[in-house]
Fold these 2 entries.
Entry 1:
Amino acid sequence: MDYVSTRNKNNRVSAAKAIATGIAPDGGLYCPTEIPKLTEEDILALCKKDYRGRSADVLGRFLTDFTAEELESFAARAYADEKFGGPDTAPLVKLADGKYILELWHGPTCAFKDMALQMLPYLLTASLKKTGEERTACILVATSGDTGKAALEGFADVEGTKIMVYYPVDGVSTIQKLQMVTQKGKNVMVCAIRGNFDDAQSAVKKIFTDAETAKTLDENGMTLSSANSINWGRLAPQIAYYVSAYCDMLNQGEIKMGDPINVCVPTGNFGNILAAYYAKNMGVPIAKLICASNENNVLTEFFQSGGTYNKNRPFHTTSSPSMDILISSNLERLLFLASGYNDAMVAELMNQLNTDGTYTVDPSVFAGIGENFDAGCCDDAQTQETIARLFKDEQYLSDTHTAVAIKVYEDYRARTGDTTPTVIASTASPFKFCQSVITAVGGTVETDGTELLDQLHELTGAPVPAPLAALSGLTPRFNLVINRDAILESTELLQTI
Ligand SMILES: *Cc1c(COP(=O)(O)O)cnc(C)c1O
């Protein structure tokens, strides 16, 4: 199976090449030329496997230049029991009124990003070998908080790689910041940027297109690579957990083979929900994909307006910072799929987004999107109210991002009367966003740093995840803060690690 750029189908490469380079030379995103299909027999066979087996199977259908042995060994190591606190890598928790919470945060950094970023280093280093790349891969990451830590954890001390993470100085939670600045490993570097996530992401994109930087790195035996969700190696592992969730629904007797489910996803860069859309196109009986946003509701408006995307709006800093995004990169892949792989159309729309900050999709293309997706948003007050109510009524403690999805799902159900069982992606542990969760459940934030973890534990009785509890014993290693326009020079630091 080959991969083509969303902006020019003549840019056609192998899976290994797509993963090794991250982004196409025309600025487009690589997509597979076809979507492999799962039959009911395939799904039944997957029901008998554990998460690792399901992941290796699903990946193998997309990454045809990798062997089954390779993928099985990668999955065994990426999703090892000691990294995910046991064999139940992505547990499904049943709540009232059709809600099934898919907890994707049992990995080493307590956010769903681990599901992909524990796997990516194996896929990437193997891809570099397969494509004959001998230079050190320098992974640059712009993060709204969770990706940075998950990428650091995935790539720390991985042979043949270096990693540099940029985070917005005022855009991440106390715990997220602590997680990043205490990261261990010889090949890691962390740097704060004055600005918001979109500033950090644009600055990093600038490095990727700067010829001078590429030349200097090359002279020093290095080449750039990406761990952001534009990389297919990030997206593919995420498809597996939607397939796996359907298997768990079957195994737990919640549905029968062929019964539809909905999926509701708290969305930022549109990677997670796009993975669900791929799972649907593979044949998993997913009816509606419900896209949940916080006050940065550019996607809600896109779906509700029938296809107008407009990033010209105020940027809100919210209690669900990993969704504080106005440019949802992976929407580009949805446009490509929904238009029947119309690369010229996608290139034109992305050009308009770049120059005017807005575009409108042709109604004939939007028709295919509208029948698959629904969307909604909520503000911080509603997020807090949802956390409080869920904890009181169902004894379930949710983080802010998951709460956004739960609220949007409840609104969707009330508005449409659709009672199809719905898998809601839970994307982070509540302990990553202590201040907001403490306030939501009626506490007053009195402490700072890792004492917040203890306070939330005392208030709710919920256990502190082991990787977060371990933070209190660590000393910060990185304190660099730079201006946005100094980001190019900051790449010189790569030579010091
Ligand atoms: C990254 C992230 C999201 C958004 O996911 P996308 O794939 O970017 O849409 C939502 N919640 C949390 C906790 C995250 O870390």
Entry 2:
Amino acid sequence: MIPVFKPLIEQEEINASKESLELGWLGMGSYVSQFEQTVQKIIGTNDRYVAAVSTGTAALHIALLVAGVGKGDEVIVASFNCSADFQAIGWVGADIVFCDCDDDTLELDLKRAEELVSPKTKAIIVMDYDCILSDHDGIAAFAKKHNLRVIHDAAHSFGSYYKGKPVGSFSDICVFSHDPVKTVTCLDGGTIVVRTEEELKYVHELRLLGMQQPSSVMYQNQRAWTFDVERVGFRYHMLNMHAAIGLAQLGKLDVISSSRREASRYYNQLLKDIPSVRVPNTDFEGVNPFLYYIRVPADQRDDLRAELKKNGVDTGIHWQPGHLFSLWKDCKAGSLDVTDRVGKEILSLPLHSKMSMSVVKEVADQIHAYFSKGAK
Ligand SMILES: *Cc1c(COP(=O)(O)O)cnc(C)c1O
């Protein structure tokens, strides 16, 4: 079976795990500091502060707290997004306001967002869906106009560039995920990027039980035994072994990103002429693609999936729209007609780092075969 996701675990990651275990300091320590410094270098800016945490979802939770979002506040978010974003909004007691996405880019539709702003709106979450980045200049202007904080969920766009600027270098608050299937995995991990030292200090407290012990001590594989706690905190820090694996992955970011780009371009080339298939409308320049998705007629999607599965090709669905889940079906929302359609058409094909082009060809051939035999 050709899987949808396949982690790039090689000798470097195995060595890194072993070394971190041999170090014997299993919690947050020196590897976490190195991981943060390396991410900072990749972001390439000195006016941002990077903190590693346990998951992307934890990073989103912390981001909402840093943005001052709480009970009674509204957060505008695309319904076409990951459940993690909706859960995090729930964790801070705020209300979800579902926005539609754009039919071409699949990014949050800013014109529709304009209709959803209310006196309670405190923040907007903008997520880069895979290989086409959001209109970040438009988002910044929107946020300024309405006095909102922006949380940039860049779980799909680590290592990508927006108008030549590295993702993470320009947002109000930016969040990455390094979970098992993301382009750069730490097994599990997340990163939050903030703009001020005060916000970083707050993030450090939030990620480690509210403890005010300086991270600099733990980064030397030691701990302060006395410190104060002033506020509620969580157990969201990153572990040394996770950071060590992440560092091994960061060392290969170029090959991860170029091989995924190459596979995505090849898919586009092979699939773009099938009348029933809509491929991403991009040349993938400057992005590190997380998914490769296509859109197919809604009434054929599940049949195609079953047929591919029968022939050894697994596929995924990113995502079922948020407003269709029981928990979120009554949330405030604008018109979601594009999201409803996209949710039924979207299909993720296998995409791996260092993927062989013959595997891309095999998947594409099967999709050709399905549509050429006049599938039902
Ligand atoms: C993966 C993902 C998350 C959650 O990150 P985890 O590290 O799995 O907690 C959030 N948002 C998006 C868009 C994601 O793809």
